[in-house]
Write a sequence for this structure.
């Protein structure tokens, strides 16, 4: 179990793994703690007893983690470094320096970037069998490398990191490798940061991307996570809302694409034809609901088909956080419902019937050049992708709300208590870990 949305920290404290494995199972679980309105808050000095710390000279921005259970190790990505650590106590197994060369740094600085920006910030760290797939900003010249997971200094392959890793370390991105070896990445594809993309590469499927320079598809997104679930890849992010008639707001979204999508012919060539997105609702109920609009982190619990998320208020408002959980069936229901469509910029957004209300990534049966296309009409795919219905959480109110703080990361553990009763333990972490 691991959390998304891990913020960059200077000293790496392994509170995630230990909080999810040791801490939750050590104290006695009291039923009244789970049912009372005010949830217990554990101070840092208590958590410190179950924490281990790791630091390394010259390393900072510890921002990416990958667990290798088979070898009992934790892979950590930091600025200009990769580390292999023991899972039990996060002591060092191996350190590998991964810094840009001097020419790349000088080229970066000549384009107006600072010395601090012109370093290599690890932004993709994925395990795949006996290999480790890593991508870094590399002084605004993204690069990806495949390494031996048992010897991270051994580079097996190196490829261009554009569309797989951001140029700027401040841009949020996410990525995953599917069981078939395809890389799905959500990142920014250009130096200026104006072209966000959902991109598929590697593997045996053709490369595909989201529509370029189309704010109705993606509008100033901050990407959070991506999961492979069944026939789909699900992306979670927040963005400046389109389809909202009440001024500029940020909404949380879930988007999905079919893994068997091969793009269009003539229309939507090299572009997703199955892209759809829906709003996620996390709010306090009331005559006028209070919305937590900005998704920060998610955790997928596949045994329960649940997606947990941390949502916060806008940075310009009072600080508050909430945890909501969404059933995969509720997400599917929203994608099976009507679309929201705007005929032209001067008209309001209106509900539009869904031509294929139970779309399951079916393909055309006809022989010929279009036989691998999904059964979704390319004309519909161009204009119908925003769902009208909102994805509702499993509870009317958030599972947890916390005022005066903005949580940024969570994980979920299931603990068996007395009488075989299951308890869901959800540690949340602030911006400093």
């Amino acid at each position: 179990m691991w959390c998304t949305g891990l913020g960059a920290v200077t000293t790496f404290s392994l509170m995630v793994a230990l909080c999810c494995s040791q801490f939750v199972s050590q104290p006695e679980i009291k039923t009244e703690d789970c049912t009372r309105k005010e949830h217990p808050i554990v101070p840092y000095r208590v958590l410190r007893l179950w924490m281990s710390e790791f630091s390394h000279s010259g390393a900072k921005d510890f921002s990416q983690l990958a667990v290798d259970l088979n070898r009992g190790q934790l892979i950590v990505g930091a600025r200009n470094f990769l580390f292999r650590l023991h899972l039990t106590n996060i002591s060092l197994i191996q350190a590998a320096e991964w810094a840009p060369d001097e020419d790349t740094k000088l080229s970066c600085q000549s384009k107006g970037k600072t010395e601090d920006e012109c370093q290599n910030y690890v932004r993709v760290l994925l395990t795949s069998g006996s290999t480790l797939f890593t991508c870094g900003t590399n002084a605004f010249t993204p690069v990806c490398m495949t390494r031996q997971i048992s010897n991270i200094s051994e580079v097996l392959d190196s490829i261009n990191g554009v569309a797989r890793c951001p140029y700027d370390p401040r841009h949020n991105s996410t990525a995953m490798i599917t069981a078939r070896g395809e890389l799905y990445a959500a990142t920014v594809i250009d130096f200026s940061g104006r072209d966000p993309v959902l991109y598929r590469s590697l593997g045996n499927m053709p490369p595909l991307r989201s529509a370029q320079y189309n704010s109705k598809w993606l509008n100033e997104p901050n990407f959070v996570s991506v999961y492979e679930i069944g026939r789909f890849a699900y992306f979670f992010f927040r963005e400046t809302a389109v389809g909202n008639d009440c001024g500029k707001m940020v909404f949380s979204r879930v988007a999905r694409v079919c893994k068997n999508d091969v793009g269009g012919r003539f229309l939507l060539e090299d572009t997703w034809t199955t892209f759809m997105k829906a709003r996620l609702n996390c709010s306090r109920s009331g005559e006028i609901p209070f919305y937590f609009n900005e998704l920060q982190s998610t955790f997928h619990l596949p045994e329960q088909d649940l997606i947990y998320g941390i949502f916060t208020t806008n940075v310009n408002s009072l600080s508050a956080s909430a945890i909501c959980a969404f059933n995969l069936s509720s997400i599917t229901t929203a994608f099976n419902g009507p679309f929201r469509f705007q005929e032209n910029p001067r008209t309001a957004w209106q509900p539009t019937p869904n031509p294929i209300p139970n779309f399951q990534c079916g393909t055309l049966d006809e022989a010929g050049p279009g036989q691998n296309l999904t059964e979704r009409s390319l004309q519909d795919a161009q204009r119908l992708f925003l769902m009208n219905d909102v994805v509702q959480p499993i509870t009317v109110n958030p599972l947890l709300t916390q005022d005066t703080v903005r949580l940024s990361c969570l994980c979920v553990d299931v603990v068996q208590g007395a009488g075989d009763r299951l308890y869901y333990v959800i540690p949340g972490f602030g911006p400093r870990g």
